[in-house]
Every structure is written in structure tokens, then in C-alpha cells.
Amino acid sequence: MKLSKWKMIIPMVAVASLAGLAIAAAPTQAAAASPVNNTQAHPVLSAADLAKLPLTDRHLNRHEIANLATVLGAYHDAEGTSLDPDAFVNSFTLDGVFTSVLVNQSYQGAALKNVVNSTAALFPDVHRDLRSITVHGDTVSIQLHIQGTFEGPLQTPAGVLKPNGAKVDYPTDDFFFLQNGKIKEFDCLIGLSAELGQLGVNFDWASAVAAG
């Protein structure tokens, strides 16, 4: 499986704000899923794998390569074609947390499974176009564009937004903070206005100005 093929799914919140969760193709020699625990369990990244990634600095030490492998392994476990919620949760520390920065909504423990399971049906063909990966010690930062087809439905305050076949392509920034080879924090910041606009949800500035 080529590392150049990246996909992702996108968790949603009920207020129609969307939080990106990246899903990547499995690196070479991906480790088999293990029961949820706090031991190290991640795939191995070869020199060939690393050469295909858009790294800002290719001089990574073994610790940094292992951290990157953990992040890519978590992406793989949350990808629609290889969905493994237990393995995804196992990529985090026992108190690890995923946060959608824009809406300040977090998921932890068993709730991490809900993020993975509930969003797979919304954008089943979502593609992750990685633009830049920076690894510095226990921090992994990724810039990307999220692309896919909206197959919803999505519950909003105004009612249900039905699947409309809309194509999305919007910028996202993911920040991972690792501890002992596992994800301690995963913060996601998406281009929300671009995404909602592409879904057909447009901001009404005239009404807002008039109300003010």
C-alpha cells in the first residue's frame, strides 16, 4: 500500500461545526491491532516510507520516527476501509484527548470510539492531501487539505442537512503531542468557513449587520 494515498474521516458536532480527524494509509509492516492497553504498539516506518512523506526536516532521530509512526498508525486505524476503534483508542495514553479547537469540544477514553464510528458514514470517501509534516521531539504538526463527498445526513440547529453530494476541499492543521510513544493530545483546527460554504451553508452578513 502506498503512503502517497492518504484518507481521512471528519468528526462532526451537532451545531454543524466540523472537526477534522485524519486517516492515513498504513505504513510498511503495520503492526496488528492489539487489545486496548498502555503499551507501545505502532507500525514501522522504513526509509522508503519516510521518503514519500512531505517532511519539513528529514533528519529525524529514532524517537521522532517512532512518534510519527504512532500518529500515522492512529490515522490508519480510523480510516473507513480499515476501521478499528479499539486500536485507535490504544494509540492514546490512558488519559489522552482529542480536541476540536474551533468549538472547544473534546473526546476522551471510550468517547474516542464514538468519534471514529459516528463520522465514518458522513464522508466515506474523504481524502487527506498532506502538504507538510513537522516532527520535533514529542510534537507532530501536520498541514493538509481535506477533500471528500458529503453523504451525511448532518443534524443542525435548523434541522437535518441531507446528503447533497457536495465536494469539500478545505485546509486543516493537526497537532499531536506524544508521551512515551502514545498520543497525549490531538488538537485539530479546520478551515470551518471554507468547509461550511462548500456544504452549501453560507453566512448571512447582511442580516448580522442589520441586527447589530
Query: What is the radius of gyration?
Result: 17 Å
Fill in the CATH topology: Nuclear Transport Factor 2, Chain: A
- Rounded to the nearest angstrom, the distance between the terminal CA atoms is 54 Å
Domain tally:
1
Percent in helix: 10-25%
Q: Going across the biggest sheet, name each strand in turn.
A: 4-3-10-9-6-5
The mean pLDDT is: 78
Major β-sheet profile: 6 strands, mixed
Give the count of helical stretches.
Answer: 6
Low-confidence blocks of residues: 1-41
Structural class: alpha+beta
Beta-strand content bin: 25-35%
CATH architecture: Roll
Order of helices and strands: EEHHHEEHEEEEEEHH
Classified by CATH, the class is Alpha Beta
Which shape, going by the Cα principal axes? globular
Number of strands: 10
Describe the structure in brief:
By secondary structure, the chain is of the alpha+beta class.
